[in-house]
Specification:
36 helices; two-stranded parallel sheet; 16 strands; alpha/beta
């Protein structure tokens, strides 16, 4: 088959509704990031480089690190349960507003010794709250969740009793997960467990993937939202057929705003109570100051750096108290907080660098202590504390000039000190990024942990212009969220509620649509693969199975969104998103244009590309074996077919800059993209281009998939990351791997994950660091059509990872980059550990 490289036909799939939403968002939120071409002080930067962690941050960090994750059920569930019983029959939005308000007024408040930024999801760090209105899977796992192999959480006996006697009986048939499962077509319910698609992340969550810190809206203060809601309610056309819905939304906004104020005041009261009995004069003064700050923010606009961080954290935390989804992200904090930092630290010098470091470090640790509990199946997919809370540093202003400032360097230093699994940290790479800043970032990477990741600006900005329909000045207001996403404030929300598995689709294509292990007919019958005579026959069968997977996941996602619309609103989240407040609509009801949806479809994609190349070369071009022999080998998992497997394994592999295999990248990518764009969304938006990333799903879905023609045996993990080569097959060094990765169309792609692993000696010297940063800049700025999109690097040897397996207690602080998130190596599943070890280890930067 002749592989084409034409672009996606309907690349700019934007409808009038979306264009109007973008323009209205631009009008209401003119400067959400606040990026400028700052002229930073090099002397302050040098002082920042010399900072030590200090006893306060070291102590708080240790508490986060050593605390065992615990699920707290009663603290949040009790007020939710009581509120739901009190509001039966009321409007769903009002019910959610009242439930959140009751949570904010009753959930325990905790101020931990030494912290300067206050507010916590649970009593202890790394604790998870329970969301009974969303999920009820715990009834099947309550006795095992504390002992399970991955992501275990302790549960107190009191909480177990409350769940079994009070929470489960009421919510077992009422929670959104139960409603979704009941409304799914039987065909989807029967076929879902076989791993052709998955919608699990949204079944067990709700609205996520949100930029939670917006400079302009931080300056408003929560009081502004209440006043605006009252104003809109008063001035609205009462005869508008939609007015009853809008009035209830605005009424819910007022309810929530008052509760947010009360929540902060509860922390002010707690701080004053602690100050009264505090013996240490310094800590007493700190607590009194915390009380004053919590009385002021987030109700009012912040006046100082401390107030800005505290206000942002309260606003951020309440997102998590409303919904248990992941990837709520602060984004480009070095731009959003800089005006307060600059005034106090740089201009007036009323706040020292050391004091600013402690404040930012305390904010950092607040992000780090967040946690979420997933069911065993979902935890298997996302082993580790996968909250995906993204902070990115540097980048450009709207004119493309560097926006690096002193706070960028300070945030990088804080990340170096914290060295925890959260938050997810990235550095923007563009033509004008200062060499020194990029080299300092590389030095942090070289110390291990896989952070910061590196993100290309050029291809992302062009994506927002060409694909998402944003004007250039809006596209340059880019921000970040989640694993590796460049996102934009004018697209208020990215909903990750459906994924497909191209690798599984290939298994089905080579077994006439049946699951090879069980014989269950999962996909359509696409013909006996033994009779395939041309490469086109293989590709056509794979396309049919992939198209079926896309249909299933879109039906599944639409069912999820239907349940949310009818039952599960998010009034707090909505009032802060786009123009939802002006619209008078919850995001689930189409506020600010409704959901922005795109699947992450990469699971097994690289294996499909490798398999196409192997079949074309060995079967159809060189005719060394027949399709019948290949199918027999796959049926037997290569047992007795070792020589044939060797031929397939030795065929060209993606990751070595070989066009024999790399020519399949774009035809595969464009088919998936065009197929997705056929399906509109319930909100009226068009679906957006998919991404290629899959966290640690390569292990789970590889386990669910049979042998493939790239030589991979049944149950073996798929290629990791998304656009990373299959483990151990990239034999041409980091540059060869990058040259293959650069052949994807990143403008047409929402996002991706690309991993590399280096031995520590490869980034040992200053010269090594300079070589590495040159390679990073070249890949992200110049390779391919518009530069790459993403790169993250583990700098850890296989020897160290093996030692950690043998003696985990000695390596409890060993963090590794998995795929879109960082985790503690000793806390992830053993097969995922093996997957990390199997990744190619580069001994030098070449």
């Amino acid at each position: 088959m002749k592989a084409t490289t034409t672009k996606v036909k309907n690349i700019g799939n934007i409808v009038p509704l979306e264009k109007e939403s973008i323009l209205r968002c631009m009008e209401e939120i003119s400067d959400p990031v606040g990026a400028r071409n700052w002229s930073y002080d090099p002397e302050i930067v040098e002082d920042i480089k010399k900072l030590e962690i200090g006893p306060r941050l070291a102590g708080l960090r240790e508490e986060v690190r050593v605390t065992t994750p615990q699920l707290y059920i009663k603290d949040r569930s009790k007020p939710v349960l009581e509120s739901y019983k009190e509001t039966e029959g009321e409007d769903p939005g009002i019910r959610q507003s009242k439930a959140l308000a009751k949570v904010l007024r009753e959930i325990p408040v905790n101020i931990r010794p030494g912290e300067l930024i206050v507010g916590a999801l649970t009593k202890t760090p790394r604790g998870a709250a329970w969301f009974p209105e969303i999920v009820d899977w715990l009834i099947d796992e309550i006795d095992e969740v504390s002992e399970r192999a991955w992501n275990p959480f302790l549960i107190s006996e009191e909480d177990k009793k409350y769940y079994l006697e009070e929470v489960h009986p009421y919510f077992k048939d009422r929670c959104s997960l139960s409603r979704i499962q009941k409304q799914l077509p039987n065909e989807l319910k029967e076929k879902y467990p076989y791993g052709l698609w998955t919608n699990g992340i949204s079944q067990e969550g709700h609205i996520g993937h949100i930029i939670v810190t917006d400079r302009q809206r931080l300056l408003n203060g929560i009081c502004w939202y209440k006043e605006r809601a009252l104003e809109l309610m008063e001035k609205a056309d009462k005869c508008d057929p939609q007015y009853p819905d809008k009035r209830l939304f605005w009424k819910g906004t007022v309810i929530v705003c008052d509760a947010v104020r009360d929540f902060a005041h509860r922390y002010a009261e707690e701080a004053r109570n602690l100050a009264k009995v505090e013996k240490d004069a310094k800590r007493k003064a700190e607590l009194e100051k915390i009380a004053e700050i919590c009385d002021w923010v987030p109700w009012n606009p912040p006046r100082t750096f401390h107030e800005a961080l505290q206000a942002a954290w309260f606003i951020y935390l309440i997102y998590y108290l409303e919904t248990n989804m992941t990837a709520q992200s602060p984004g480009r904090i070095d731009q959003k907080f800089y005006s307060w930092f600059k005034k106090e630290v740089v201009d007036d010098k009323t706040l020292s660098i050391e004091e600013a470091k402690e404040l930012l470090g305390c904010y950092w640790l607040k992000v780090a202590e967040n946690s979420k509990i997933n069911s065993e199946v979902e935890s298997r997919w996302r082993t580790g504390n996968v909250m995906f809370q993204s902070i990115t540093l540097g980048g450009t202003d709207k004119n493309g000039q560097s926006a690096v400032n002193e706070l960028s360097y300070l945030a990088l230093k804080v990340e170096d000190h914290m060295h925890l699994d959260q938050p997810n940290v990235g550095v923007w790479v563009h033509d004008n990024v200062p060499d020194d800043f990029l080299e300092e970032s590389a030095k942090v990477v070289a110390r291990g942990g896989g952070k910061p990741m590196f993100m290309g600006v050029k291809s992302r900005v062009k994506h927002f212009m060409d694909v998402a329909g944003l004007p250039e000045d809006a596209a340059m207001q880019y921000d970040s969220l989640g694993c590796s996403f460049m996102w934009n404030p004018y697209y208020p929300h990215y909903d990750h509620s459906n994924d497909i598995v191209p690798g599984k689709a290939l298994e089905l294509a080579l077994n006439n649509g049946a699951d090879r292990k069980t014989g269950k007919q999962i996909g359509p019958q696409t013909g006996d693969p033994r009779k395939f005579r041309r490469m086109e026959d293989v590709v056509k069968a794979w396309e049919a199975q992939t198209a079926y997977a896309m249909q299933c996941t879109c039906i599944h996602a639409n069912t999820i969104h239907k349940v949310w619309q009818e039952y599960l609103r998010v009034p707090y989240t909505s009032m802060l998103l786009g123009t939802c407040l002006t619209d008078g609509k919850d995001i689930v009801n189409g506020g600010s244009g409704g959901f922005n949806n795109s699947p992450i479809v990469s699971i097994g994609s690289v294996n499909v590309i490798n398999s196409f190349a192997a079949l074309e070369k060995i079967v159809f071009n060189e005719k060394k074996v027949t399709m019948a022999e290949v199918i027999d080998a796959l049926d037997k998992n290569f047992e007795g077919f070792e020589e044939l497997q060797k031929l397939l394994l030795n065929a060209p592999k993606y990751g070595n800059d070989d066009d024999v295999v790399d020519k399949w990248i774009r035809p595969h990518q464009y088919f998936i993209t065009e197929e997705l764009l056929k399906y509109p969304m319930r909100s009226g938006r068009q679906r957006k281009h998919p991404g290629w990333e899959h966290l640690s799903a390569s292990v789970l879905f590889g386990w669910m998939t049979g042998a493939l023609p790239d030589g991979r045996k049944a149950g073996v993990p798929f290629a990791e990351g998304g656009v990373s080569p299959m483990q151990g097959t990239d034999t041409s060094g980091p540059t060869g791997s990058m040259r293959s990765a650069a052949k994807w169309d990143y403008v047409s792609m929402l996002n991706c994950i690309y991993n590399q692993r280096y031995h520590p000696t490869a980034l040992e010297s200053d010269e090594d660091i300079k070589k590495f940063t040159t390679l990073v800049k070249t890949y992200l700025n110049r390779m391919g059509d518009n530069g790459g999109q993403h790169l993250q690097c583990n700098v850890v040897s296989s020897e160290t990872l093996r030692k950690a397996q043998r003696d985990p207690e000695k390596y409890r602080d060993l963090t590794v980059r998995v795929a879109g998130y960082t985790a503690y190596f000793t806390e992830i599943a053993e097969d995922l550990q093996e997957d990390l070890i199997a990744r190619t280890e580069y001994s030098e930067v070449a």
